Amino acid sequence: MSHLFTQPLKVINCGLESFARNLAQAGGEVETLSWQPPAMGDIQAGLDLAYLMQHPLVEQANKNAFQRYLDAQPTLVDVMPAAEAIPEMATRKLILHAGPPIAWNRMCGPVQGAIVGAILFEGWAASHEEAERLIMDGVIDMEPCHHYHAVGPMAGIISPSTPLFVVENRASGRRAYTNMNEGLGKVLRFGANSEEVIERLRWMRNELAPTLRVALRFSGDVELKPLMAQALHMGDEIHNRNAAATGLLMKRLVPALLGSGQPLDELRRVIAFILGNDHFFLNLSMAACKVMMDAAAHEPFSSLVTVMARNGVEFGVRLSGTGNRWFTAKANPVEGLFFPGYGVDDAAADLGDSAITETAGVGGFAMASSPAIVKFVGGTPDDAIANSRRMQFITLGGNGAFTLPSMNFAPTAAGIDARKVIDRNILPVINTGIAHRQAGIGQIGAGITTAPMPCFVEAIRALAEEVRRHTGETS
Q1: Rounded to two decimals, what is the model's pTM?
Q2: Per DSSP, what are the bridge partners of residue 412?
Q3: What is the pLDDT of residue 168?
Q4: CATH number of 71-285
């Protein structure tokens, strides 16, 4: 021991940085590790995490769920009204919204505004005041899109007359649904509900959707996975940048549109609308990711995350091994770039179902493929690559169908493992638009956020309880 103190001082510091500073001042060579206790210091949750790590039931379940995700083949097969795609909407005044369940009086401004707009669009009320009375009287049912295998960006609103894209997993026959992207500016998904917004929705229902339905029947089904993979190689990350994917979709649809025999004026309007909106493919990307994650769902004992969604107040996750149960926490703010005249105080909390893209391994997980995205969400191209690399530490594997050219064509990190999120204190990264907290003002910026840790802590505790119940063990 006496020789120890005569040697150069080399220390690995784990914990408070102040310890490292004192050692460095004493002439020592110090390497500081960024570490904090797992599970936010929750002792019982930490014990639950230790119990689930390397547990044979969980390991096999994750292998099964992840393989079904990899095998999924999302395919655009139809366009139809929501009441046709989702039978429950044909018999009830039902409106679907983004994120986990939430009562009307707790909803953020954009979601409330969008729901009022949907009621006006459906013709259930003639004024905002009448629409709100219907809500307060309990006439309108409001539930999450995810409860009906559907997804929608931002407010996520789907009402019975809403035209939906129908995406089917060819490997299983199961379907997912999404509304159509309205474009930018004052739109329903940001809570706008003026006559201009309602009139656009009517046009989408009466002309855009029927035209696309005929074109799709003329062209045949559209496999989305290869299209998404190609878009990743062309600079998209298929969440906040969809320019390449939208172009590739139109390359497939325009010949079908022109050959379908529909009136030329209608075709001009439809083509101009889609080409004028680089985000048009976003909703299809979301439905494709939803059907892939649904393939991995309901595998008993799996810690794989199958849903991440936000309603502007709360962030919610679901695990494959805990079924339809939501684990929620307060939604994190979004750090990013604001349009001129707006700032943090104007922003709503994280909002929308579009985090299903990150859940499936694209979006923020694939930012390395889209260096230009940083001009929209902030940061640098190096930051984008760092985000994609960091996500490899919290996932079950990679998706070889989606590769990243800037990382030597490495597969995107995929299959978020709630255990690893807690154990490594690395939160799933999400790039997203920023909505104004008041209804109708619209998008005011874009940026980066993360899923809140308490969601995963709660989910792991529930999963450990499920495994113990099955094995007859006690905590």
Answers
A1: 0.93
A2: 399
A3: 98
A4: 3.90.1710.10
